[in-house]
Amino acid sequence: MPSLIPVTTNRIGDHLPLLELLPSDAPLSWVRNGEGLVGWGVHATTTVSGKDRFEKARDWWHHQLETFAVANSVHGSGTGPVLFASFSFDRNQESVLVIPKVVVGQKGLQSWITWIGDTPQPLLPEKRENISQGAFTFGDGSISTAAWKERVAQAITRIETTKVDKVVLARDLLATTNADIDARPILAKLASEYPSTWTFAVDGLVGATPELLLRLSRGMVTSRVLAGTIPKTGDDAKDLALAASLARSSKDLEEHEYAVRSVAEALEPFCSSTNVPESPFVLHLANVMHLATDVTGALTESKHRVDAFSLLKNLHPSAAVCGTPRNIAFDIIDEIEGMNRGRYAGPVGWIDASGDGELGIALRTGQITGKEIRIYAGCGIVAGSNPEKELEESNAKMIPMRSALQS
Predict the structure, then answer these.
(1) DSSP code for 108
(2) Domain with 146 in it
(3) Chain-centre distance of CA 362, in angstroms?
């Protein structure tokens, strides 16, 4: 029988600039307001696909855990060995799983390092100088803006004539530069401009999502639902008025209700109790405002422990990124959207050895491939939608990534 591989978790010093620790090669990140996890080096990685991809991911993770001898002096969620995961939107596309060699975590006043192998504790990298990118050229993605507006009009017709209430349509833009793209300055700028979002990186997928699909910690589950959006003007008085109009908008409230209901129904089978607020709050980000609701639940105690993989299977895709009813909406997306989403709008984040974790929906995101990055945005289409306004909303949602590419 092969010997087990040592995995060690130790406390380390005071507050750390997590994103500044990352190397250029395959950085891994899940950071919000300076807290979270970053990782580097690859101990093991694989891809999964198919309708059972969440079960395949769990099986592979558990098989890897069986090869470890863990010494964890810190304990708590995110300590010990950690799996970073980025799942595809469509089950037929590849999802990526990565176990880093080194993970550094921070929560409150507590910081820790986990490393795999029998070497001494790795030294943390020294603070690096700012890294600048070359200039980017933007061009159409999979389809032109005119063609996308036509797809929105098609979706509205489907809503008016079939048994579908909401369809989420996404579009993409392609940005190119003259050298291989470094994810680190993109992550740094996103974290600086949008500190309340979760800044993530897994296998070239980078972004800053405001939408927490799932937080599971010690039997408590939380999901933040965002649906219903309005761009900000930068004028405080105008934006307050816009926030009030968003909170009263029947179109946006309808879209939001579908998304909240889909999440609550997905969590209900696993929970002894759930809390769904009666009305949403308005979440203010630097570029847009969203209607937001935090759905929470207490897991039912049973001998078969519910883990993040179980919940992900039920939660994805939510109405916020697919539509309602989601099976019909998914088929319409597949038919008319005109692009491959890849891992955009799929779950992204981390899961630890106990099955706890934090995963968001990969929004406000881009996929890096060498000298190219493809950035994405999507809009919830309902009966009251207008193609021109949906295009404006999608452009507003692309501002974070477009800004992050400007050094």
Answers:
(1) T
(2) 5-120+135-404
(3) 3
